[in-house]
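ok so i was messing around last nite and threw this chain in just to see what happens. nothing serious, just curious
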Amino acid sequence: MSVELRNADDGARTFHLALETEAGMLDWDSHRVDAGVDEQ
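result:
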C-alpha cells in the first residue's frame, strides 16, 4: 500500500491514518507534514 500526504497549506499539518479490515483496526499512525510538502 502507498499513501501520499500533500500539505498545500502555509503551516505544518498532522495526518492521522488508520488501517482497517472487516475484522477491525490493524494499525494507527500519525504523521506530521511541513508546509508545502508532499510525502509518500
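not much to say yet. The chain is about 0% helix and 60% strand.
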